Predict the structure of L-threonine 3-dehydrogenase.
Amino acid sequence: MKALVKAKPEEGLLMERVPVPEIGPDDVLIKIKATGICGTDIHIWNWDDWAQKTVPVPLVTGHEFAGEIVEVGRNVDDLKIGQRCSGEGHLIGKHSRQSRAGKFHLDPQTRGIGVNEQGAFAQFLRLPAFNVVPLPDEIPDEIGAILDPLGNAVHTALSFDLVGEDVLITGAGPIGIMAAAVARHVGARHVVITDVNPDRLALAEKVTDVVPVNVATENLRDVTARLKMREGFDVGLEMSGNQVALDQMVETLVMGGRIALLGIPPGKSPVDWSRIVFKAITIKGVYGREIFETWYKMIAMLENGLDVSKVITHRFAVDRFQEGFAAMKSGKSGKVVLDWV
Ligand code: NAD
Ligand code: ZN
């Protein structure tokens, strides 16, 4: 089969022919229809320090996918050939305290497809049946292919009650933008999204009803005054990984405000902890998606009016993957989807 492989410990990915994976008794084989390119895939493409420490070579990359089940292992009795699906790319152990408590997303042994294990940028993917998420007919393959990052957005946005709240999202990348759409969908009052990239802010406005703020040229305090917020934002969703953004969030939050942190800062970042203490701010780190409560909620929201389709800005047949990665690296794209059919 064709697959996008990190074939050598160097920059780039190669389209290669590799064997179709053999499935075990508890697995399914999925024929891939569409895949999303993630920021993680760009790290792997660039072969940066993190990728060199994390990714074995050779490896089939990719973890955002939708497809159709074409083979089921002998112990799998709840999934049928022909079922359209996406799936959780985090492969978890079942023996940790957290897993045994049903908090699968907190299992410390988690391994990622396309990062530690063979991935989804291929014509076929082997996946434990446990990880499969069936897709309803109303959700097209290209949306199925971005449920992993939508899940990050949903998990983060639903960390705190947003009904009637003023929400600040820092970072208008695909995940920040989708989180803004989710915040609106669940009934936030004002949703303000910041970035320093005007293309990203323009895209945010196309996808959902938000107040975009370019913090390179505008003062966030002026915006809270214009929106008649008396004391500041109630909830912050940090989705940039940028230290300046986190500082601005802490500054503009109300006393007792709440922050969910999804963005990954590069290395250790200085934080003004006394400010956080004196403002009595609650901070929650967010990793991945809740398995499978986030999947349940995001599919329910997609079936009931949540629309993130405009966050997909580029579509390429998989043979043009180079253009897809270039679009992602340009900083001008939202989600880029590769079509495998
Ligand atoms: P992205 O890199 O596409 O978007 C980040 C955005 O932040 C960019 O548009 C950038 O211009 C913007 N930004 C930079 N400096 C800023 C500043 N000072 N203020 C406001 N915005 C600023 O990333 P993404 O794919 O949307 O993912 C968002 C973040 O979440 C990334 O940091 C990513 O690594 C992280 N992530 C974490 C998890 C997890 O499990 N915790 C999972 C997926 C992604
Ligand atoms: Zn991803």
